[in-house]
Hints:
Low-confidence stretches: 340-348
Strand order of the largest sheet: 5-2-1-6-7-8
Helix content: 25-40%
Number of helices: 8
Order of helices and strands: EHEEEEEHEEHEHHEEHEHEEH
Amino acid sequence: MGYRVAIVGATGNVGREMLNILEEVNFPVDEMHAIASRKSKGVEVSWGDKIIKCKDIEEFDFSSVDLVLMSAGGDASRAWSEKIGKAGPIVIDNSSAFRMDPDVPLIVPEVNPDAIKLATKKNIVANPNCSTAQLVVALKPLHDAAKAKRVVVSTYQSVSGAGKAGMDELWNQTKAIYGLGDATPKKFPKQIAFNVIPFIGSFRDDGYTDEEAKMWDETHKMIDPAIKLTVTCVRVPVFVGHSESVTVEFDRPISPDEARAILRDAPGVQVIDKQEADGYITPVDAAGEHAVYVSRIRKDHTVENGLSFWVVSDNLRKGAALNAVQIAQLLDETGVIKSSTGYRTLTI
Length: 348
């Protein structure tokens, strides 16, 4: 016996990745349902070697499934996730709608797996922001070894974080500039092709954006509320893969070699750190991969007990779809949901 699974938002970038990864890891699925809005009813998506047609979310009976992976945006989640949870299945929500709800666990399985015991409070588990997910996978093992007091992060976020429309805008603007065509911004507030935009989300009263606030709020919830964290989020002309420049001040000395050893043993992390012209990871290298990559580990000489490093991951995978599937695996492993069908645990 396997699970009856529904993917809400199955036609989007992340929804399609969820389908791919569930098949890659041989997650035990007896039935797969692709769910979308009414306008996408009948749209075909791939599931393994099969093609399935999307069903209308308004017409679907969610009491007929065990597990729902929700990737349709915050508005859809706020409208549907609690209703779905009350119907019986557990919802793994990829939006920001429930991340800070005290009755909803926010989980990165390599970081805080014990929080899964809260999953049945509302039958909702939240997936973190894509940039937070890769940050905490790299930060948690270091924090366990030497408490992080203060963290400074600058992100370099790909356009796929803004969905298909973001990817289309980079592609179309690049063609337009080369062909002297119209590069007028539509999805982003300024031109993204051959440019960077130091603004993601919407501004708050304190001058930060809500995207930046998500990173410290979610890190506090998953790791430690005492960590002081400041963030600048930047959109860059990269199709897939988020990068982060991270500086951490610890409460005791920690050398680059010690940090490398800790991270090499950490779940979900790959250390690629050679002091050579190509001895580090870029977003192009990380696209399509499962790991969180850490490079450029070095001492920060401007603060006591400081380290700086570079973190890269595929935002559609670890930042969204992969983490959701790993949460589904965790639900199964801990017996929150049960299946007698075996599958291979995803190793990195």
